[in-house]
Amino acid sequence: MNLPGPEIGKKTRGRHLGRPGKAQLSGRQSVIRYAKPTTVEEALALLGEDRWRILAGGTDFYPAQGAKPFRDNVLDINALAELRGIAETDDHWRVGARTTWTDIVRQPLPPAFDALKAGAREVGSVQIQNVASIAGNLCNASPAADGVPALLALDADVELRSLKAVRHLPLSEFILGNRRTALQPDEMVTAIRVPKRSAAGSSAFVKLGARRYLVISIAMAAARLVVENGVIAEAAIAVGSCSAVARRLAGVEATLRGRPIDEALVDAVLSAAYDELSPIADVRGSAEYREQAAREIVVRAVRAAVGLNQGKVAA
Predict the structure, then answer these.
(1) Do 169 and 220 form a contact (C-beta atoms < 8 A)?
(2) Closest to 17 measured CA to CA, from 1, 39, 34, 2
(3) Strands 53-55 and 74-76, bridge-based pairing
């Protein structure tokens, strides 16, 4: 990768690591270092000694940068092969931070992950899905991040590593607001974990946009339901693009639990409490439209998750 600004000089850990002078640009420090480590331990060592802007797939990184000069140290983690892939353990499904959306779509996973796979297919074009990483989607912390509602419905947590410790945060505690996360300067996301107990049932994802493809959502919903003997035993519902961060809907989940699978579900979902949502008005839709749209797409996601759209019911 060619970075504008000072010349990259001395080679050291990773592929290249520059240490030019601290040039000043508009009152801020110009880019002084670029590193491409080949192990997680090397990346963590670098994070422990300086402040870095982490570059993963780059599909959010470069559009946000635009034509502006680079003014941050850049830590390129694209050579960290150990952070890519999906593994099953005794307690969790573990998704490496650099796992791409195409990887997720192609991986054989339980039906509870169907909503995540559907969300993966909505992340830009196929070319974007081939390089964009799941951790990048979370760290970008957009309210319209397509992967977040499904991960919330799966009770996912985020694995954060530094030189000193490893910690796990529920996804709902990791994303703090629009473009804000709980990631500390010396940490990097190394994995997203889904508990085995939450990988049960079936799921569906519905996205509403101004057009069918390559669009930022007006509203989106993920539903994961466990059905036993024709009755909903467990419900996890999350909505994105209708609040500063995607939210689980406790009122809708409470309404669904214990209900039989029939057409009365529609009225129950429409009339449930959606207290967690606080939609805004923007160029894509008014707050009032988003609120009504959220109810409709939750209905569609619930119907799809239990098979009502196909004339069958999940057992």
Answers:
(1) no
(2) 34
(3) parallel
Sheet holding 166-170, edge to edge: 86-88, 92-96, 188-195, 157-161, 166-170
User: What is the span of the domain harbouring residue 170?
Assistant: 81-198
pLDDT in tens, 136-155: 999 999 999 999 999 999 99
CA dihedral 126, 131, 133, 137 (to 10 degrees): -60
pLDDT at 16: 45
Query: CATH number for the domain including 101?
Result: 3.30.465.10
The phi-psi region of residue 243 (left if phi > 0; otherwise alpha if psi is between -120 and 50; otherwise beta) is beta
Q: Do 105 and 29 have their domain in common?
A: no
> What is the CATH number for 4?
3.30.43
Of 30, 45, 80, the position where a domain reaches its end is 80
**What is the number of structural domains in the chain?**
3
Residue among 69, 87, 71, 86 nearest 22 (CA): 71
Q: For residue 124, what are its two tokens?
A: 């830009």
Residue-level length of the chain: 315
Q: 287 and 206, same structural domain?
A: yes
Return the beta strands (E) in the chain as ranges. 24-25, 28-29, 34-35, 53-55, 74-76, 86-88, 92-96, 157-161, 166-170, 175-177, 180-181, 188-195, 202-208, 219-228, 231-240, 247-248
Whether residue 20 lies inside any domain: the answer is yes
User: 173-204: per-residue pLDDT in tens?
Assistant: 999 999 999 999 999 999 999 999 999 999 99
| CATH value at residue 263 | 3.30.390.50
- CA dihedral (256, 246, 174, 42) positive or negative: positive
Nearest to 240, CA basis, from 208, 270, 212, 211? 208
